């Protein structure tokens, strides 16, 4: 107990990389906590920035992209919450607020004042009591998004509410002293650090396609125009690739610079001078983009407190300036600007995955930190990686005073990435020639038929599962009721006595819809299935209690949906949009050159990959290393965390493409491996043949006899079969034999 009337709250910190999806993770956690408490809870969801709160409200409100995660919750701004909503203990409530709503110790804010037209007591006091109509106190969950902003004063005021749970989330976790004291109470009574912090592995974030796979830094100890020229050239190339690959997005760029200083000498820039004579970096960048590079002014936003004397020398009419900070943020977000010029004051709520390019001006002694801008361009558009590495990369063009500064920046960013996301590859260059050497175009154009999932045969089996579901929509069946339980752990303060567990059973657990319950289970097994089910069926509208027999049946049904989909879906060829061998990135210092490869050479090959690469080259057929940062992918029909298969190599022989992978033992014992090895077109032809290669000699998919040589896996009569080769050269010849 913290004191007699208030127990130490449940505490959990979410540590996750920028772009990992902290908001939906928190939303899902809140929905799960709801199932374990009674009566229905109140969630106070807080963030520092108004932009973040508004964005969260939009995502949670009816029709928002995360609304399905909080099924049944009423979503309101805290300013719109009255006594009636706090007393309505039959409806779970999410109240959204900024820190500024309550963070004053002098109690002068509206939330701390009594509003005669609403209630005699201040809303803050009513929220502390939060008595429902049953006169039982409602559970309170405090969620602090972007928790690195949490201060001692904020913590003290929030703890006045005596919450039952506190969830904080941040990419860079920092715990204020007041909260640390509360956490230490938990540690002293048996809660180790690993139980107090949930960390999302960065590898899973990358594999899920939430963030880009590569960051490329370029250092420019030269004039601004040179860096901008290179940025715009690469941006144009990437835009063309996005259009050709039907990626569904148009790449954007940001330009980070100082605001009201002269780029020439660093002194204050005079706002009373004509626009054409101003030397402030935002103006110089805007003029170069518009006057020299032909960018439309309507595509450019300047988001910073840039000064103008509007009486004598106002900006041009087509100069779009957002100088109002948070007050301008909503208007800024409504437009789809492709070029955004700002200083580090751009709001936390701005997260645009389509941003792939960044110019950062660190000249003239600027203290702008590159690593602070990384998160702005790290998110991946479309939540998927594309077949061309350029569409999976974040490109930085950094202007510095001296070349010696750039290695220091590289080192700082490398250390930051190594700590936060080691799976994201970092490359750098100091001039355009070095950048050109790291980007190798294919010697000739070769394609591979794209492969996708055909689930047409799964539609009827999925309908069968729906027909087998019991209809609970009338609410009359006893099986929709589940007993609830409230559990408290009571530890006397200042005594060594063992704490006691107090359990109180209730007649009911909280209600959710069958749709929410099933979707959530499927999401964890194989999300693609969700797109194939007809969710309009009325059976999914049934409201059932979380611990009821009906809920158990629906969870089992979710597994049946996934099994029906996987068992009745096949991998088929896509005719209209073949994968084209792309440009690849290499490290010129580690590059190994090949004669018959599609590119001049490759780097970062492990010993097994290098042995196969050399043997492939000796076979004298066109081949390539499949880019590790997003290349040719084949969907996997498997209930696992890995959704796609990326073969190590592609080889072309006699109008057939061979997809070769040297990690075969990871898939050979799965049904997904069998389907992978037996992909055919509508005529039964095999246009892409997958070969899995395992080190050593295997008797079958479970039995490895020795470490000698290699085993090539192929399909015969619907069964996965091994074929042993004594050397890499022999294994390559076996792989390229279409007749086996």
Fold and architecture overview:
- The mean pLDDT is 88.
- The radius of gyration is 30 Å and the shape is globular.
- The relative contact order is 0.09.
- The protein has an 8-stranded parallel sheet, sandwiched between helices. A 7-stranded parallel sheet has the order 3-4-2-5-6-1-7.
- With 740 residues, it is of the alpha/beta class.
- A hairpin with a 2-residue loop joins strand 29 and strand 30 (656-661).
- The protein has 4 domains: 10-200, Rossmann fold; 206-440, Rossmann fold; 456-568, no CATH class; 581-735, Trna Endonuclease, Chain: A, domain 1 (3-Layer(aba) Sandwich), CATH 3.40.1350.
- The protein contains 20 helices and 33 strands.
| Tally of DSSP β-strands | 33
SS-based structural class?
alpha/beta
CATH H level of the largest domain: which superfamily?
Answer: P-loop containing nucleotide triphosphate hydrolases
Classify the helix fraction into a percent range. 25-40%
User: How many helix segments?
Assistant: 20
Number of domains: 4
Oligomer: single chain
Task: Kindly report the CATH topology of the largest domain.
Answer: Rossmann fold
Taken as a percent bin, the fraction of beta residues is: 15-25%
At CATH level 2, the architecture of the largest domain is 3-Layer(aba) Sandwich
Strand order of the largest sheet: 11-10-12-9-13-14-8-15
Main β sheet profile: 8 strands, parallel
Poorly predicted runs of 5 or more residues: none
Q: Termini distance? A: 70 Å
CATH class of the largest domain: Alpha Beta
Task: Please state the overall shape, judged from the principal axes of the Cα atoms.
Answer: globular
The average pLDDT is 88
Indicate the radius of gyration in whole angstroms.
Answer: 30 Å
């Amino acid at each position: 107990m913290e004191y007699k009337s208030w127990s130490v709250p449940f505490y959990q910190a979410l540590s996750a990389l920028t772009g990992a999806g902290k908001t939906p993770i928190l939303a899902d956690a809140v929905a799960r906590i709801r199932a374990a408490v009674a009566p229905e809870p109140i969630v106070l969801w807080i963030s520092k920035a108004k932009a973040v709160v508004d964005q969260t409200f939009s995502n949670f409100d009816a029709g928002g992209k995360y609304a399905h995660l909080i099924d049944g919750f009423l979503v309101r701004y805290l300013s719109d919450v009255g006594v009636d909503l706090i007393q309505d203990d039959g409806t779970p409530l999410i109240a959204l607020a900024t820190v500024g709503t309550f963070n004053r110790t002098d109690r002068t804010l509206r939330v701390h004042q009594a509003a005669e037209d609403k209630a005699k007591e201040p809303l803050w006091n009513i929220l502390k009591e939060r008595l429902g109509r049953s006169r039982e106190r409602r559970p309170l969950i405090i969620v602090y998004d972007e928790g690195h902003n949490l201060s001692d004063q904020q913590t003290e005021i929030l703890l006045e509410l005596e919450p039952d749970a506190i969830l904080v989330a941040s990419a860079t976790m920092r715990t204020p002293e007041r909260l640390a004291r509360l956490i230490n109470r938990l540690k002293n009574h048996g809660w180790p650090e690993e139980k107090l912090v949930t960390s999302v592995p960065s590898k899973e974030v990358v594999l899920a396609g939430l963030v880009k796979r590569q960051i490329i830094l370029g250092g420019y100890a030269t004039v601004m125009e040179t860096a901008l020229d290179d940025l715009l050239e690469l941006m144009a190339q990437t835009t063309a690739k996005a259009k050709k690959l039907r990626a569904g997005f148009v790449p954007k760029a940001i330009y980070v610079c100082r605001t009201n200083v002269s780029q020439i000498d660093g002194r204050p820039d005079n706002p009373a001078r004509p626009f054409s004579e101003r030397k402030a970096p935002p103006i110089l960048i805007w003029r170069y983009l518009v006057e020299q590079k032909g960018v439309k002014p309507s595509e450019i936003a300047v988001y910073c407190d840039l000064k103008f004397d509007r009486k004598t020398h106002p900006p041009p009419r087509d100069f779009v300036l957002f100088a109002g900070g948070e007050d301008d943020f909503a208007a800024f977000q409504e437009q789809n600007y492709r070029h955004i010029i700002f200083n580090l004051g751009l709001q936390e709520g701005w997260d645009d995955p389509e941003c792939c390019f960044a110019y950062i001006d660190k000249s003239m002694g600027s203290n702008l930190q590159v690593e602070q801008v990384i998160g702005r361009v790290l998110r991946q558009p479309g939540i998927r990686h594309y077949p061309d590495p350029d569409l999976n990369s974040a490109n930085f063009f950094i202007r510095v005073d001296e070349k010696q500064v750039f290695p220091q920046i590289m080192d700082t960013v490398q250390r930051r990435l190594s700590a936060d996301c080691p799976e994201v590859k970092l490359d750098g260059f100091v001039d355009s020639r070095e950048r050109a050497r790291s980007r190798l175009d294919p010697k000739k154009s070769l394609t591979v038929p794209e492969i996708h999932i055909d689930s047409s045969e799964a539609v009827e089996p999925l309908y069968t599962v729906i027909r087998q579901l019991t209809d609970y929509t009338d609410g009359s069946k006893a099986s929709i009721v589940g007993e609830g339980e409230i559990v408290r752990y009571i530890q006397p303060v200042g005594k060594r006595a063992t704490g006691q567990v107090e359990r109180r059973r209730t007649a009911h657990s909280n209600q959710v819809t069958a749709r929410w319950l099933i979707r959530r289970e499927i999401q964890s097994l194989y999300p693609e299935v969700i797109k194939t089910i007809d969710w309009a069926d009325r059976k999914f509208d049934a409201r059932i209690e979380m611990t009821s027999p009906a809920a158990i049946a629906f969870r089992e049904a979710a597994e049946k949906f996934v099994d029906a989909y996987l068992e009745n879906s096949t991998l088929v060829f896509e005719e209209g949009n073949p994968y084209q061998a792309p440009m690849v990135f290499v490290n010129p210092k580690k590059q190994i050159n090949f004669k018959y490869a599609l590119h001049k050479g490759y780097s970062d090959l492990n010993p097994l990959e290098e042995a196969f690469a050399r043997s492939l080259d000796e076979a004298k057929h066109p081949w390539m290393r499949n880019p590790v940062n997003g290349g040719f992918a084949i969907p996997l029909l498997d209930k696992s965390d890995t959704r796609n298969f990326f073969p190590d190599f592609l080889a072309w022989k006699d109008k057939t493409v061979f997809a070769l992978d040297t990690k075969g033992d990871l898939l050979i014992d799965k049904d997904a491996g069998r389907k992978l090895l037996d992909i055919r077109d509508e005529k039964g032809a095999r246009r892409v043949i997958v070969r899995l290669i395992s080190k050593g000699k295997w008797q079958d998919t479970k039995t490895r006899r020795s470490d000698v040589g290699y085993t090539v896996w192929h399909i015969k009569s619907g069964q996965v079969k091994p074929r042993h080769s004594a050397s890499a050269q022999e294994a390559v010849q076996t792989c390229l034999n279409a007749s086996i």
